[in-house]
Amino acid sequence: MAEFKQLDKAWDKISERVEEWADHGLDMLPNFLVAIMVFILFIFFSRLMGRLLTKRLHLVSKNEAMNGMLVSTAKIAIMAFGLLTCLGILHLDKTVATLLAGIGIVGLAFSFAFQHTAHNLLSGIIIVSKSTINVGHMVEINGVTGVVTRIGLRATYVNNTEGQIVGIPNRLVTDENYTDYSVMAERRIDLQGHVHYDSDLELVEKVTIDAVKNLEGIKADNPIQFYFEDMSDFSVQYVIRFWIPFTNVHPEYLNAKHKAIKSIMTAYREKGIKIPYPITEIKGIQKAN
């Protein structure tokens, strides 16, 4: 096949060049040293440009994800140019061009094997340019809840509520539903409970709402919602919904639920409202003497 002939041709040229290096090792030694020094310089240059770009981009854009992706792309481009420069010093630039042409043809045959990689790359560009997600946002993606620490070319990295860094492929972010809690600057808490069938439901509703309404940190501009949801075998079930100011600190969300539960339980004890639990009665059969 034509593509394999291209590779064979490139390989032959590389082999010839290696043989020349073996024959003229001392003559080529300065080229090797210069190429190594140039490559090291490009490494330092790419890091320096990365830091400079990061500072400059912060002045014109607050999108951390977009800034990070632009910096990564610039560093990769600099290193690629440095590699080509080093190959030119070693007189391998034409050989590499031939090799890349052959690989490009063969690469078409393997494109399906890397379709997820390409999908993730394009999805990453969409995330940083079109979505609301940004570094520092509290999100829920594919069952993972936490703070976005970095949006890379392949994956979005989230520091979850357990303190672990989870990498989520970018294609899952764009193809599935996600929740960005940071956009609205507030978060709703849904707290479910149940009471005994003998309870005064009007009293239950009033006492539960009052117990939550008086808590510190509850957003007063959003009305508290209370609904009886279902009648189970042992109780009447309800849900109470209230809002708190949003922060990226997940324990604050847990602390708000913690305070609400304690306040509701204290109010129920004071008003004599009972919370039932399943009771199983076992009756024995008495035998006659």
Describe the protein's architecture and organization.
It is a single chain. This protein is of the alpha+beta class and 289 residues long. It has three domains: 2-109, Orthogonal Bundle (Helix Hairpins); 132-180, SH3 type barrels (Roll), CATH 2.30.30.60; 186-271, Alpha-Beta Plaits (2-Layer Sandwich), CATH 3.30.70.100. The chain is 55% helix and 18% strand. It is built from eight helices and eight strands; from the N terminus they run αααααββββαββαββα. The protein has helices at 2-23, 25-60, 64-89, 93-109, 115-130, 170-175, 201-213, 250-271, and strands at residues 138-141, 144-151, 155-160, 165-169, 178-180, 186-195, 225-231, 236-245. The strands form two sheets. It has a five-stranded antiparallel beta sheet with strand order 4-3-2-1-5. Strands 6-8-7 form a three-stranded antiparallel beta sheet, with helices on one face. Helix 1 packs antiparallel against helix 4 and helix 3 packs across helix 5. The longest helix is centred in the N-terminal third of the chain and has 36 residues, at 25-60. The radius of gyration is 32 Å and the shape is elongated.
